[in-house]
Amino acid sequence: MNDLLERDARIVGQVGKLRFSPLAAARGRGSYLYDADGRAVLDLSMCAGAAGLGYGHPAIVEAVSRAVRDMAGASLLLHANPDAVALGEQLLATMPDPDDQRVWFGHAGSDANDAAVRIVQAATGRSRFISFIGSYHGGQSGSMAVSGHSAMTHTLPRPGLVLLPYPDPYRGLFSVEEVFRLLDFHLETVAPADQVAAVIVEPIMSDGGLIVPPSGFFAGLRQRCDRHGILLIVDEVKVGLGRSGTFHAFDAEGITPDVVTFGKGLGGGLPLSAVVGSVDLMDIAPAFAMMTTSGNPVSTAAGGAVLRTIADEGLVEAAATQGKLLRNGIRELARDHTIIGDVRGRGLAIGVDLVDNPESKAPAPVTTAAKVILRCYQLGVHLLYVGLSGNVLELTPALTIGEEEISQAIDVLDAALADVAGGAVTDDQVAPYMMW
Ligand code: PMP
Description:
The chain is an alpha/beta fold. It has two domains: about 1-40 and about 315-435, Aspartate Aminotransferase, domain 1 (Alpha-Beta Complex); about 60-310, Aspartate Aminotransferase, domain 2 (3-Layer(aba) Sandwich). It contains 14 helices and 15 strands. The chain has helices at about 1-10, 45-50, 60-70, 80-95, 110-125, 140-145, 175-190, 215-230, 280, 295-310, 315-335, 365-380, 405-420, 425-430; strands at about 25-30, 30-35, 40-45, 100-105, 130-135, 160-165, 195-200, 230-235, 260, 275-280, 340-345, 350-355, 380, 385, 390-395. A seven-stranded mixed beta sheet has the order 4-10-9-8-7-5-6, sandwiched between helices. It has a four-stranded mixed beta sheet with strand order 1-2-3-13.
């Protein structure tokens, strides 16, 4: 294992890295990653939700093996291929108005949001966007430029972007009404409504702290968009496709977006993303958003297997049930661990907000979150931290997670919180893993 880490340290610098623990994975199976010594680590992140069905799911193995063996070209740009077309049909069938929708395939949430932004800008002839503080829509220039995460202040947002607070029911810094007052004021003044192309928003703000918006927020956004002819782009990259306990996370809000972006779990761990929007938007121009290997048969075969497995194994319902079990278990820990200020989420998108004290709700230092993560890793569980202050433990386990694994997760978190409170992990130990 050390050899892998040493070689990795030699070739990978800071630019492409976001790691909160020293896990060097040699292989994976189901909810577990194994290091070179064969030690099993229960993965509660699944690479930030990318491997949503677990590692090595037989349906994905079978579909990908077949697709790579019979490789029907390498590009939907250049040839139709059966896996990409079938996946497109499956994905559109999940939308409220499938006959009026088209799909574009990419490789990652970042390029999906890039494409979505360019498409709506070209289609509307408007170039202003509304987004939210804490949002993360990607690491490419277009998607990064409509994001608002505090870890991204190294890059300027796009001109004409309005960043609004995302209403957070726990800390309540801004109510839904206040957010809308700010939005309306912008639309009446410096961001004239007829110049705004779209609002881009996460249905659950994930990298910004796993925040579930209060009810009424999405309905209010939809209303304002309709009133002003502004499009609503919903970024389902992290919490879509069953993770939140409904097939689409926006299903829980009772609204229909104009454009939806998918990524991460769609490829089951392979690079795959999608933009879905109405025919008039998506037919903006030929050759408008090109990437040679987009819609390639191997990734789209994985995507097809993912969607089929979600249906066949009832994983939307499983996410709702198992998510409740996991959240309730962690909530019980809060009785003994006052550092747990809030346990929130929907389905298997769960945030554990660590605080200095539950009354003030002041975020715990990011180093504390890192210490909990390092201790969890030492005890055999892997997870990440997110949030504008880096104080929220994020759990996005496999949709296939079982009850025994949930018990293990809760026991290890319990022990890790106690150990960290007792000073078992030092600042020096976590210093190499403070990445955002
Ligand atoms: N949108 C959301 C909501 C995300 O959480 C992420 C990744 N954290 C992205 C977009 C970007 O996806 P990717 O890193 O796969 O490009």
